[in-house]
# Entry
Amino acid sequence: MGREYRHVRYEVVDGVLTLTLHRPERLNAYTPLMGQELLDAFDRADADDDVRVVVLTGSGKAFCAGADLAEGGPSRFDYPDGTNHRDFGGKIAMRIFASLKPTISAVNGAAVGFGATVLLPTDVRLASSRARFGYTFGRIGLVPEAASSWFLPRVVGISRAMEWAVTGRVFGAAEALEAGLIRSVHEPEELLPAACALAREMADATAPVAVALTRQMLWRMLGASDPMRAHELDSRAMYERGRSEDVKEGITAFLEKRPARFPGRVSTDMPSFYPWWTERPFKPLPP
# Structure
């Protein structure tokens, strides 16, 4: 699709991509077009070596108020695809999960439904003191989407995840912070600067290929059966990275007491064993 987005804003400044959900008149409620634009934006970011970190936020007073229920009315979730249906929120969550760039959520306001699940596969989450969160699916007869049955318990633990998902209640930034859903709470005007400062810390002194590989290693090892799988992967990665020009430059810069200038690029220099996993094709459920 084209690079002029309608429901998303895409702005890169000094290596930091600010990706803004942009339907402020509807509290940034999710639409299929927004979903398509998010998928395109993450593809675009991964292909652009000038993008080092992605900051996801919302326009206006909300982060995302969930799906736009005005589109489709009571039949909004009556999908025609039957057993072949794939939850589109899940497609977005899996695309963020696969990102080669670190991702930060700056939750500026209400994050409900899809707004509360899309932030789960981001690496670090910051929130405004005005932010509100809600996994409210059960209150309209649905179940949590966007692969949040996998992500949410890993972020906050099974007991808190169950409480939030089963009650469907909306809660504030203080409870989100105490549970570990978010890293820190900021005054509204300080939120985006804090997120960008963290992004700069991630980008300024690190090698892009090492960061991309590290991100995937940490996320994917959450599902490993035992630490030997991590040891095997670490060993493979250390062998290949240890021979790279990035490591030669990093050590030389350290010894010379100067900032490193890493030559490796994510677009061309990922190691030969990447990706090391096999993606499972989606298969319809049995009738």
